[in-house]
Design goal:
The protein is mainly β and about 170 residues long. The protein is built from 3 helices and 12 strands, in the order ββαβββαβαββββββ. The strands form 2 sheets. A 6-stranded antiparallel β-barrel has the order 1-2-5-4-3-6. A hairpin with a 4-residue loop joins strand 1 (about 5-15) and strand 2 (about 20-25). The longest helix has 4 residues, at about 30. It starts with a strand and ends in a 7-residue tail after the last strand. About 20% of the residues are buried.
């Protein structure tokens, strides 16, 4: 089974077993529906425990979760720092959205000259409201391409691992 990381447990919150989490998903309300099974994973020891979402509350970059298996703070304290993961096959992405991991490694080419290779995506970063592709060029320079469809991003082909971009003056 392949997992994706949805966030990390930062600390317990309150006495009823809720936890404050750092969000790594744009789809918290979809991923954390009551009754959904997720996995708590200690990345250092590889300990893993499956739990059921009992409650979800969004708070911007953070969210609060409660698990059916841990109804009080004493039961959930030991999971501080654990990753919250989900089976990748169950974590579908709405049309027009992409997983960061799927974009990393894609070759980036010029939309108007498909033979012009700009480089490869090495990271995806978010500044304010704009997501940016970090593209490493052949001369090992990093350039940042705003992930704005139509304006900069013309086509994303995940099967071929190719992203076509509109190269505007000053972008590179």
């Amino acid at each position: 089974m392949e997992y994706i990381t949805l966030g990390y447990i930062l600390k317990p919150f309150g006495l009823k077993g809720e936890v404050r989490c750092k969000s790594l998903t744009s789809f918290g309300s979809i991923r954390f529906k009551k009754g959904t099974t997720v996995s708590l994973h200690n990345e250092k020891t590889d300990e893993r425990v499956d739990v059921t979402i009992a409650k979800y509350r969004d708070s911007g970059d953070y969210y609060f979760l409660a698990f059916a298996e841990f109804p009080d703070i004493n039961l959930v304290e030991k999971y501080k720092g654990f990753a919250i993961e989900m089976d990748k096959s169950l974590a579908t992405v709405p049309d027009g959205f992409y997983r960061y991991d799927d974009l990393i490694g894609c070759k980036v080419i010029d939309y108007l000259d498909e033979n012009r290779i700009i480089g490869n995506v090495i990271d995806v970063v978010k500044y304010s409201v704009t997501m940016n592709l970090v593209v490493e060029t052949e001369d090992k320079k990093n350039v940042y391409v705003p992930f704005k469809k139509e304006l900069f991003i013309k086509n994303v082909d995940l099967e071929k691992k190719v992203i076509s971009i509109n190269v505007m003056e000053g972008l590179l």
